[in-house]
Design a protein that fits this description.
Radius of gyration: 20 Å
CATH architecture of the largest domain: Sandwich
Low-confidence stretches: none
Distance between the termini: 46 Å
Number of strands: 13
Strand content: 15-25%
Helix content: 40-55%
Number of domains: 2
Structural class: alpha+beta
CATH superfamily of the largest domain: Regulatory protein AraC
Length: about 300
């Protein structure tokens, strides 16, 4: 599965780009050194990748998060560090506010020679599969990004190192590695547009009936080629990817609403309550009713 490759450009003499959004992540402001702001357009709602690393904080809002082969719900103070070329996508539900910091520090970059190189390499290696941090880290990182928004170029570089130190020092119990496998996007100019369309079709319509034959038709590939490429680049079969998207959405509805479980099963795209219960227990080791009961006040 190929992905949309985002071409990120930094200002002269900078190794980072800081973006802010209020309302939705498609309409962004680029926060340049010294406090200057310019309009920018984001592609976070599409399955995409880029060579630069990325750190994203959702200060407010909720939705679905896709990172490599990971599919899950996100909420306020969702905080994720992504490695280079790791495919990702955030599907927002309603209003969201947040920051995204994109940066590029190859091994030969001067900032990597200031000390702590081993810690940086360790952090970046883990980020190849995406790292989610708890809200305490997100709140501390948010303060650093707020300072970075108005800082000079030199000060922004220092704040970037401070941010990396914060993330590296986060307690293990407060971090989660997202993707189970290392998924790297591969550029293929001939097939990328067709495959990217298929992935977006899945992300936007997983609550509706989705057939493998339709996905194959949209890709304009043979069935065998499509299935092989999809598994290679997501770590999952087409059916497993769709099922995980439905289960993550159902989990979000179970924990954030009081809708009846039967309604949630069908709203998430499952054709029967029995099939939903079986798949949910297999994914979360609890039946939907057990999960909801565990959230009720004792």
């Amino acid at each position: 599965m190929a992905v949309l490759l985002e071409n990120i450009r930094f200002a002269p003499d900078e190794c980072l780009r800081l973006l802010r959004w209020q309302g939705n992540a498609r309409t962004l402001q680029s926060l340049e050194a010294g406090g200057r702001r310019t309009a920018a357009t984001g592609v976070g709602g599409r399955w995409h990748s880029h060579a630069e690393m990325e750190f994203t904080i959702f200060q407010r809002g909720s939705g679905m998060r896709y990172v490599g082969d990971h599919v899950g719900a996100f909420g306020e103070w969702d905080c994720v560090l992504l490695g280079s070329h790791l495919p990702h996508c955030w599907m927002e539900q309603g209003r969201t506010d947040g920051y995204v910091l994109q940066f590029h520090l190859p091994p030969e970059h001067p900032l990597r020679r200031l000390g702590g190189g081993r810690e940086v390499r360790r952090l970046f290696a883990t980020a190849e599969r995406g790292i989610s941090f708890r809200s305490a880290t997100a709140r501390a990182a948010f303060v650093l990004l707020e300072h970075m928004a108005a800082a000079s170029k030199l000060a922004r570089a220092g704040l970037l190192l401070e941010l990396l130190a914060l993330l590296h020092g986060a307690p293990k119990k407060q971090t989660v590695t997202l993707s189970q496998t290392r998924v790297f996007a591969e550029a293929d100019a001939a097939t990328r547009p067709r495959l990217e369309e298929v992935v977006q079709w899945v992300l936007e319509r997983f609550t509706q009936p989705l057939m493998l034959d339709e996905a194959v038709k949209r890709s304009a590939m043979s069935r065998a080629t499509f299935c092989r490429q999809f598994l290679k680049h997501t770590g999952k079969t087409f059916i497993a990817f769709v099922t995980d998207a439905r289960l993550a959405y159902a989990h979000q509805l179970l924990t954030q609403t009081q809708r009846p479980i039967t309604d949630i099963a069908y709203a998430s795209g499952f054709g029967s309550l029995t099939r939903f219960n079986t798949a949910f227990r297999g994914k979360f080791d609890k039946a939907p009713r057990e999960l909801r009961s565990s959230l009720s006040p004792k």
